[in-house]
Amino acid sequence: MLKPAGCVLFIIVMVGFLAICFKPAAQPVEGYEAPHDSEYYAGRPEELKAELEDNLFPLLDGVIGCELEGTQLKIVFEEDCFAEAAGSIVYYYDRELFIFEKR
Asked: For residue 82, which of 70, 90, 92 has the smallest C-alpha distance?
């Protein structure tokens, strides 16, 4: 049913689809290096908040705010920047340390 041109188009579309599906959501931020790992910050949410506000948030787009909620940080993003910014944070720190919200 598919002619040679249709087969080539199908393969190109399939490769593009797979590239998008398997692209990692977590991307490193250029110019940022985490000073400590997630284990260090697990018991020090205030230090993590200060680290993110001082060093990482200025490098990210769409961060509206950050506040402590118990032992987790609640970070609010603009809706259009949510996936990229949250993915960048999760690249450096465990997801369990955060509550992500979009507005």
From this structure: 90
| Strand partners of residue 67 | 74
Rounded CA separation 77/62 (Å): 5
The CA–CA distances, whole Å, from 70 to 46, 78, 88 equal 10, 23, 23
Predicted TM-score (pTM) of this structure: 0.72
CB 61 within 8 A of CB 77: no
**102 CB-contact burial (10 Å; exposed 0-12 / middle 13-18 / buried 19+):** middle
**Exposed/middle/buried for residue 30 (C-beta within 10 Å: 0-12, 13-18, 19+):** exposed
**Cβ 63 vs Cβ 4: under 8 Å:** no
pLDDT in tens, 61-85: 999 999 999 899 999 999 998 988 8
